[in-house]
Amino acid sequence: MLGKLSWDAIPFNEPLPLLSGAVVGIVILAILVTVTVKGWWPYLWREWLTSVDHKRIGVMYLALGLVMLLRGFTDAIMMRTQQAVAVGDAQGYLPPQHYDQIFSAHGTIMIFFVAMPLVIGLMNFAVPLQLGVRDVAFPTLNSISLWLTATGALLVNMSLVIGVFSRASWWGYPPLSGLAYSPDVGVDYYLWSLQISGVGTLLTGINFVTTILKLRAPGMTYFRMPVFCWTALCANLLIVAAFPVLTATFVMLLLDRYLDMHFFTNDLGGNQMMYANLFWAWGHPEVYILVLPAFGVFSEVAATFSGKGLFSYRSMVWATLGICILSFMVWLHHFFTMGAGADVNAFFGIMSSIIAVPTGVKVFNWLFTMFRGRIVFKTPALWLVGFIVTFVIGGLTGVLLAVPPVDFVLHNSAFLVAHFHNVIIGGVVFGALAGITYWFPKAFGFTLDERWGQAAFWCWLIGFWLAFTPLYALGLMGMTRRLQHIADPSWQPLLLVAEVGAVVIFAGILCQIAQLYVSIRTREHRLDLTGDPWNGRTLEWSTSSPPPAYNFAMLPKVETIDAFWHMKRTGRAPVEPVYEPIEIPRNSPAGFITAFFAVVMGFSLIWHIWWLAILGFLAAATVVLIAGWNIDREHEISAAEVAQMERAR
Predict the structure, then answer these.
(1) Is 636 helix (H, G, I), strand (E, B) or coil?
(2) Residue of 315, 337, 469, 560 marked active site
(3) In the annotation, is 420 catalytic?
(4) Does residue 79 carry a catalytic annotation?
(5) What is the rounded distance in angstroms from the CA atom of residue 347 to the CA atom of residue 356?
(6) Which has the closest alpha carbon to 490: 499, 503, 479?
(7) Catalytic site residue 231?
């Protein structure tokens, strides 16, 4: 009746998972009680949970990413502490089985449920506004995408207290992820959470490719689009091309586990190296799916806070397109040491070096944009400067690792860990935090506190270098990755420095929480009444803060790049006050209800509760079909109502 699920699934003999689950449960219960007592459920249901407004969906993506950042960072600081104290005869506080789960969960959460929601959230919020349109191409599908992503995040966190999580790392290489070495449900939690959330991400990619190619303001040709829209387009093209590869790969691994099909187990004709090829054929484009939108954020920040147009706009666009294409030609550098042969290694080493060229073009564009500009060092501009320094060094270490003989020495070492975090934290996380600070007043109508924001920046920057510079040195000294225990006591001083760095980053996170709290408390003194707090250049700053549900009462007419800046310079209003009726999409509970049944289906598949899995799938499919066939999707705001709202704004 309940498949493999029994009371043994709850780790009563392991206090740490129980304590973690209890803390999470108490926090969730406190939130539910507060919302119930305050009577906020009708508002939350009406304005957020069932909303198909791209701005609300973007904010919810960002909220999901930030919450999961806390969870993923908790795993990181636990691992860093374990390595700092488990040296020599000391065994630390995390047993190997638990450490491996934390290690795997950290990578899975940070890539799929922190970085992806953060960049997709920024794209959701800003792209339609920058394009001068009223919403994405498929608003209800956008909601379903969000809630499928949240479903995957929930399933990962359920493994805290019901069963275990994967111990095969975030890439799940066979045979370690096969039944022979992972007979429990840990790998199943990993596979089903990523399959379900991956469907949501793929739908997002389809949605935004369609939006950018088909929905733009009158006069906005491709080469008048803001750079952030270009990077969003390329990132979503990569999603559409790469995520089906990951989905198919996971389907084959699931068939290996559930039906003993031996795609990747080297038995009966299988080939485990095929998994590595397929995974990284998705995995390296994924790096650019994450970092290209961050590049777009920094392009907007550089131009805005330098008070001048982006240097060589067209070269920035072509560099973005070049990265988009080249990202599919470098995946094998992730396993140079696995016997592909000298010719193959040479080709992928050369391509991995070449892809640094368009990235270098972008760095010089940002530098030349700031050169002789009237730079205003607000918090987003600080993130830009910190990013350039950090990302360039991380990129240089990447070019070093692209040389196969060097990679043979450094592969699987702590040096690689430092490089990867150098790129992802210095690029993606810094970019996401810059974008949140930059567009926060547009989303909520007031700016964030500068003092706490700058304190958070310095803690993140200093903490990052303290945490990961020692890993470069340790990697050169021979320390490998994924160590639960450190045999060489001479490594401990550097590991303690890395631990201090993690603590400083945690101080930065606390500063950001304080920044949000202080900003909300003092919002009356920091209201954005103009809609343009940074003297912006693109169309999102031409509407009020926060924007109305329809974004623009009249769609703006675009004549050049930096359309709003051009309108301000020529003294023309961004829109003419001649109002017409506007149709906007109705709220839909389809996404939330689909996610509920997807959770039921995913949990049942993990625990082999087949009857419930079938019911969950049929229910979710029925909800999606009903939403798809629903013809009453929009409601009209009359011209008089639009005029009244515009006057009130």
Answers:
(1) strand
(2) 315
(3) yes
(4) yes
(5) 15
(6) 479
(7) no
Q: Is 142 a catalytic residue?
A: yes
C-alpha distances in angstroms, 150 versus 85, 162, 200, 241, 428? 35, 18, 9, 22, 20
CA angle 75-79-83, nearest 5°?
Answer: 170
Q: What is the pLDDT of residue 436?
A: 97
What does the pLDDT read at residue 572? 64
Q: Which residues of the chain have pLDDT under 70?
A: 572-576, 649
124 is catalytic: yes
Instruction: Give dist(CA 52, CA 196) in Å, integer.
Output: 20
Cis peptide before 546 (omega within 30 of 0): yes
8 A C-beta contact, residue 204 and residue 538? no
359 labelled catalytic: yes
Residue 71 appears among annotated catalytic residues: yes
Question: Is 149 noted as a catalytic residue in this protein?
Answer: yes
Q: Which long-range contacts (CB under 8 A, 24 or more apart) does 457-461 make?
A: 457/379, 457/382, 457/383, 457/386, 457/433, 457/508, 458/508, 459/504, 459/505, 459/507, 459/508, 459/511, 460/386, 460/429, 460/430, 460/433, 460/505, 460/508, 461/386, 461/390
Rounded (10°) CA dihedral 553, 437, 591, 128: 30
Please say if 421 is a catalytic residue: yes
Q: Active-site residue 632, yes or no?
A: no
Q: Estimate the crossing angle of helix 54-85 against helix 492-521, to 10 degrees.
A: 150
DSSP conformation class of 524: G
221 three-class SS: coil
Residue 638: predicted pLDDT: 83
Active site residue 201: yes
Q: Which of 167, 216, 362, 537 is catalytic?
A: 362
Q: Which one of 20, 51, 60, 75 is the catalytic residue?
A: 75
Which tokens in the block code for residue 396? 């240089």
Task: Report the alpha-carbon distance of residue 112 to residue 110 in Å, rounded.
Answer: 6
Give the active site residue among 20, 159, 204, 397. 204
